[in-house]
Amino acid sequence: MSKLDEGEVIKKVRELEKQGDAGKVRKPGRVWTVKTWLQHWVEEIAEPSVRENTCAGYEVAVRVHLTPGPGAHRLDKLEPEHLERFSTKMLANGSKPATAHQAHRTIRTALNHAMRRGHVTRNVATLAVPPRIEDEEVEPYDIEEVQRLLSEAAKIRNSARWSIALALGLRQGEASGLRWSDVGLPAGILRVRKNRLRPKCLHGCGGECGSKPGYCKQRVRKNEDTANTKSRAGRRAIGVPDGLVRLLELHRKEQDQERCRAAQEWRETGFVFPSPVGAPLVPSTDYDAWKQLLIDAKVRDGRLHDARHTAATVLLILGAPERVVMQITGWSSTAMAARYQHVTGGILQDVAKQVGGLIWEVAKSDEGTSKEAPEQPR
């Protein structure tokens, strides 16, 4: 062996000794690529241990972004610069910063597991600079826009669905997951317990149809319709305004008529806002209905989540204590309220005119009662 070769060997041995002292020697065995590790992590580690919707987000990030991106790299050769270039490329190709950030969080979580198991000696995702994201500006609808939305919604089925969104600020999954057993109309109480899950299906034909499982004519559902809400704060009881109680009572009567028309085709699932034959409402169908409602009402385009912003903002402007607003909206942190402090002058004026009006009915205090502590809207 030449002196040069001997020096290289000594250098390598010393490096390994240092890594051993620090507990950072990579475990011998299978050589993983980023792609094969991410697939293993999603299917064998994440899926059995995290919530279904969380795992679905991981799966999309891995399949759509990470596998085509840094997937071909050897896992133990991955560097922070690889991930930074990947994020830059995602943004250049039109991905939103939040999407790029989600991909970064996903691989960071996956690499944490790889490091704990000795497949890598460090988590390069914690060293890479993640894509910058800024809080989206809260853009609540003003009262005139809300009135137009509700007026147009009254012409379609499940119209109370949109009153729920705009008055109480329920998340899409929470509204879609409501069952009549959660609604106490005489008492004016609504209990949020469940969240609607996106359907996941398996082939019923063994894959012979050539379609994706969700489009297979013999598809078999592999997950439940609902799951418990994500956090303890999400499981909550909400006082329902009298006007909304009346709308829900009318909605129940309309649903009874639909049940009669559907006859044997009706599925008794107990959902407040089901399909025309009683089946659970598909989230994408609910989203499409919202978008069409915006068009029909001639209201500016917005996310379904903007209806939630509207409800939260109005409650704060009406003077409802922050803790009460947190209870109604299901916030788990007071920091969320800070995002709703900036509102347009227009909505301030509109709300002032609408107190006790068409949309939100606020109980008036008895004469002589102090106004320093407003009551929770019923």
Strand and helix map with partners:
Blueprint: H1 3-22, H2 34-49, H3 52-66, H4 80-92, H5 97-116, H6 124-127, H7 143-153, H8 160-168, H9 172-176, E1 183-184, E2 189-192, E3 194-196, E4 201-202, E5 220-221, E6 226-228, E7 236-239, H10 242-262, H11 283-296, H12 305-317, H13 322-329, H14 335-338, H15 345-354
Antiparallel strand pairs: 1-2, 2-7, 3-6, 4-5
Written account of the structure:
With 378 residues, the protein is mainly alpha-helical. 48% of the residues lie in helices and 5% in strands. A 3-stranded antiparallel β-sheet has the order 1-2-7, with no helix packed on it. Strands 3-6 form a two-stranded antiparallel ribbon. Strand 1 and strand 2 form a beta hairpin. Helix 7 (143-153) runs antiparallel to helix 8 (160-168). The longest helix is centred in the middle third of the chain and has 21 residues, at 242-262. The protein is elongated. The N and C termini lie far apart (86 Å). 29% of the residues are buried.
Which properties best describe this structure?
378 residues, mainly alpha, 3-stranded antiparallel sheet, two-stranded antiparallel sheet, 15 helices, elongated, disordered C terminus
- The largest sheet has its strands arranged as 1-2-7
Order of helices and strands: HHHHHHHHHEEEEEEEHHHHHH
Low-confidence stretches: 358-378
Alpha-carbon distance between the two ends? 86 Å
| Mean pLDDT rating | 81
Major β-sheet annotation = 3 strands, antiparallel
Number of helices: 15
* Category from helices, strands and their pairing: mainly alpha
Strand proportion? 5-15%
Helix fraction, binned, reads 40-55%
* CA-atom Rg in angstroms: 26 Å
Based on CA inertia axes, which overall geometry fits? elongated
Q: Count the beta strands.
A: 7
